[in-house]
Amino acid sequence: MQSAYSKKWVVHCEPALASAEHVVKYLGQYTHRVAITNQRILSIKDGKVTFIAKDYRDNATKNPLL
Questions:
Q1: pTM score > 0.85 for this model?
Q2: Torsion over CA: 46, 47, 52, 58 (sign)
Q3: For the chain, what are the domain ranges?
Q4: pLDDT digits 0-9 by tens, 6-50
């Protein structure tokens, strides 16, 4: 806990959302996403899927096969 006190924190606060409808719309942006979009799928053959993925460790685009 003491190490957390010694760090400089930047807190980002926004005003409260206007209504429950706004909350649902906001959360819906994050909860109704698919794991992988059709645009990233390159091929589906013999039960295996090849898709486009970005490796953020080396910033390279890769095509894994699952």
A1: no
A2: negative
A3: 36-66
A4: 888 888 888 887 888 888 888 888 887 788 889 999 999 999 999
